Amino acid sequence: MNAADDKTIVREYFNSTGFDRWQRIYGDGQVNKVQLDIRTGHQRTVDTVLEWLVADGNLPGLSVCDAGCGVGSLSIPLAEAGAIVYASDISEKMVGEAYERANAVPGRANNITFTAQDLEALSGKYHTVICLDVLIHYPQDQAAAMISHLSSITDSRLIISFAPKTLALTVLKKIGEFFPGPSKATRAYQHREADIIKILQSNGFTIQRQGMTSTSFYYSRILEAVR
Ligand code: SAH
Questions:
Q1: N or C: which end of the chain has fewer CB within 10 A?
Q2: pLDDT at residue 169 in the model
Q3: pLDDT tens across 91-106, in order?
C-alpha cells in the first residue's frame, strides 16, 4: 500500500468510526474498561508535555503548532496557558470537535487557529511543534519524511510521541490481531526509539527530555528534541 492510500484510510477512519471511538476516549463520558485505560494513559502523555512547557516559564505568547491535534486535548490547555496555538488535523471531524470543545467555554479559544490539514501540508515556522500519538499511523519507512517535514517548520523544539517497538508490545499486538474488533480498522505502527532519535539528530536536534507513559493498553514514548 502506498503512502497516499494509507492516508486516505486514516482520514476516512477518523471522519467515521474512528471519530466516534476516539472522541469518546478523549472525552469524559462513560467508556469501557479498555477505553478508560487508554484515556488515562493518553491524559498522562498530555500532562507530561504540559508540565515540561509550563516548567520552562515562557509559554505566554509562544507559537506552538499542534500537528494532528485530534479533539484538542493538548491544544486547548496550551492556549489557556497563554500559548498561540495552531491546531490542525487531517480529519475535519476531529478538528471540528476540537473547535467545539474550545468554544464551549467563552474566551478559551482566543489564541487557537484550527485547520483541517494533512501535517505534510503545514508550512511556516513555529517556536515549538508538537505531534502526539500520530506516528502510530505512519509505517516505519515513512517516519523519516514525516519528521523531516515537521523539522522544517520548527524553530527551536519538536516534541513527538510514538508507540515504542519492543518485544512485549509486538507480542501484545499479535494477540490483538487474532481478535480484530470493528474499531481496529486502521493499522497501528510501532517505531524503534533508536530510529526516531537518529532521524531527529539528522535534522539537527538533540534530545532534551524524555518521558514514557504505559498503562495496560496504552504505550507512548515522548521525546523533546531541541536545537
Ligand atoms: N495529538 C492528539 C490526537 C491523537 S489521535 C492527541 O494526542 O490528543 C491521532 C490523530 O492524528 C487523529 O486525530 C488523526 O486524524 C491525526 N492524523 C493522522 N495522520 C495525520 C496526518 N497525516 N496529518 C494530520 N493529522 C493526522
A1: N
A2: 59
A3: 999 999 999 999 999 8
